[in-house]
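Tokens in:
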């Protein structure tokens, strides 16, 4: 089966792989046997479920944690490359369950797999786990913010704004190191306070923070500030500040 795979004869390779699994003593099967099977299935476009199940079946092979995790990372990479992000997320979740001491990269990869599968609730839940387990790292705060923004906007007050505030509070500790995260949070809060909360003073506070940290766009931001300063403290509900629109991009 392996020789046929290496030579590009995938149909014949699958035939021998099927024969191997039908005849071989299950106790003698090792991870590379499943890898050959999965690679052949992928080449023959046998369907994502068949490929996924092959990788998952291999988890039951009696071997070390490192070997299993390394094998499953190949599966995660395959599904990521194919943009099958839900299967990638399932594989990474299995990796997390296998590892005695998962690292932040494992949770980060899972959050991204969920996010790009548009499973924003899943991404947000993983991000909050990162915040809890790794409070000194920016990634949990950042992806909680990203996922929260992608969720239903009617829940903005209870989800997106607290996430933005939390990202702001973390990133302001080092605005040089976390400049991107800091700018994202202050831009969002500046626009939120003028367009949604109708809080002119709070909005100006965040527009000025944005201006201070974004020298390249300081002149343009000043135009927004000038426009907002001319507005009444309480705006009519139907009125929107055009100055704040770029802050939401």
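Residues out:
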């Amino acid at each position: 089966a392996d020789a046929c795979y290496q030579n590009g004869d995938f149909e014949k390779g699958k035939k021998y792989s099927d024969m191997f699994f039908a005849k071989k003593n299950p106790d003698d099967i090792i991870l590379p046997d499943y890898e050959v099977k999965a690679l052949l299935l992928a080449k023959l476009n046998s369907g994502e479920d068949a490929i996924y199940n092959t990788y998952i079946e291999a988890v039951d092979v009696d071997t070390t944690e490192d070997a299993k995790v390394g094998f499953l990372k190949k599966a995660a990479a395959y599904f990521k490359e194919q943009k099958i992000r839900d299967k990638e997320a399932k594989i990474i979740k299995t990796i997390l369950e296998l590892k005695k001491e998962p690292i932040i990269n494992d949770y980060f990869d899972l959050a991204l797999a969920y996010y790009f599968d548009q499973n924003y609730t899943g991404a947000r839940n993983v991000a909050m786990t990162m915040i809890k387990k790794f409070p000194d790292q920016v990634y949990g705060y950042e992806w909680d913010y990203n996922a929260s923004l992608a969720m239903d906007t009617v829940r903005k007050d209870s989800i997106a704004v607290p996430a933005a505030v939390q990202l702001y509070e973390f990133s302001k500790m080092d605005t040089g190191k976390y400049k991107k995260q800091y700018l994202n949070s202050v831009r969002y809060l500046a626009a939120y306070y003028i367009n949604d909360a109708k809080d002119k003073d709070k909005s100006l506070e965040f527009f000025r923070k944005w201006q201070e940290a974004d020298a390249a766009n300081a002149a343009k931001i000043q135009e927004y500030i000038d426009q907002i300063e001319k507005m009444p403290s309480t705006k009519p509900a139907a009125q929107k500040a055009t100055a704040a629109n770029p802050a939401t991009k």
